[in-house]
Amino acid sequence: MSGVTDSHKTAASVQSEKSVESAEPAEIVAVTQGETERRMSDLSAPAGASSHGKGRLSARGNWHTRLRVGIMGGTFDPIHIGHLATAEQAREAYGLDAVVFVPAGKPVFKKDRAVTPAADRLAMCRLAVASNPAFCVSAMEIERGGDTYTVDTLRELRGHYPGNVELYFITGADAVAYIVQWRESAAIADLARLIAVTRPGYALTAERRREIEEHGRFDVSYLEVTALAVSSSDLRARVRAGRSIRYLVMQRVLDYIAAHGLYAPEAAGEVRR
Question: What does the pLDDT look like over 175-218, one tens digit per residue?
């Protein structure tokens, strides 16, 4: 995963740079290259927190002796304001020092439809988070190859970060409802805490919560976030229909979609901005 110093670049960081260079204009490369490594290096060698008893104040004024890193996985096809708002609200609510967006390489639950090439989804994620110093992107799932499973990603991240870093996996409450069916779900419970994001008016049933608690040692927190009625599938449909998606994605993502003709039928013409 990108996130080590220049003298210790991983194969993932090197490959991601190559992917971006081949898929993006020069101005986009300038924004994305090096920034993720710098941000994640700061976390790997924190100055304000250590495993030797020192701590630091979180953004909310709470004293932490361990760094907290949020992990947000997804297909991000495309990444939109709902993803970003969710990550920011989770960061604020739980005092996360950073949130890492991990676009899926080959999502096992979406084999029934075509997925936009990984290089494009990775590029859009990097563009979307560029303005937030607490956000960064990892290409680890894309570069690992094969089917994408949460447990594999968390294991890799756990091996990457020092022991004074806590992992918080951010996902929808509807997905958490079936976490007991995920691959090696018991191992997931040992690797990360879970932030189950809910929308206003939605909650897991008491029966489902008990099932999750009984299945493993899951540490699940439920966070209600601002309801944003936007989805990647709807955005793709809007582009195909020639409708605007302005303000539903970051402007630079919109420009990328238009420049690369993503989601629009071959005969549809320009993407509306």
Answer: 877 777 788 888 898 999 999 898 776 766 777 777 767 666 78
Q: Tell me the C-alpha distance between 21 and 120, whole Å.
A: 11
What the block records as the tokens of 96 is: 């996360």
**CA–CA separation, 133 and 129 (whole Å):** 8
Q: How far apart are CA 93 and CA 87, in angstroms?
A: 10
Helix spans in the chain (H): 11-23, 26-32, 35-44, 81-94, 118-129, 140-144, 150-160, 173-176, 185-191, 206-215, 232-240, 251-260
Q: Which two tokens stand for residue 165?
A: 């870093």
Closest residue by Cα to residue 1 from 147, 99, 137, 130: 137
Domains of the chain: 6-230 (3.40.50.620)
Find, among 3, 79, 1, the residue nearest to 41 by Cα.
Answer: 3
Give the model confidence (pLDDT) of 106-158 as tens digits.
776 666 678 899 999 999 999 999 999 999 999 999 998 888 889 999 999 99
